[in-house]
Amino acid sequence: MIFRGFGKRRYPPEIEERIPPGQTLTEKWPILTYGRVPRFNPQTWDLRVTGLVEEEKRWTYEEFMALPRTKVTADIHCVTTWSLLGSEWEGVSVRELLRDVRIKPEARYVMQHCDGGYTTNLPLDIFLDDDVLLCYRRNGEDITPDHGWPLRLVVPKRYFWKSAKWVRSLEFMARDQLGFWENLGYNNNADPWQEERFS
pTM for the full model? Predict the structure, then answer.
């Protein structure tokens, strides 16, 4: 086994280039949650789009699950310094969800609102990237409640707290607002390649 520096494992170059600074590779998907795991009831669950849109939209669980599915293979990086590479994420692309939603021109940001009161914000250009999914499966299996079932966002280009669990609504906004962890001192931009962990 070859080591780099003091106790850091060295990976093949094609793997090394996918791991941002300060991160360590894991093969497991750690569970990190603030608060309780909410109970899911498919009869009452819905997903809403609100804020700066021409008309607010709502999908029942059945309607959401009938939307076209897509798969994205992507790496994820947690602010707590682990990285998980090459997972296959399956769900509904944000672009597909918003195909019939007319976003007002002044909208620049999106706030994710989740069961349990959790929120996190994203710039609209990051949110609308082609690899951002409203996800319910990973590597061919439903994600577990601890990981956000029935629905979580997956935003590969940001630290994983921006990929909120238990998403229930997406609010389009003209001005940025800080979400839960951002209000507690986490960096608002959260780019893992810039090590934007804390403000």
Answer: 0.93
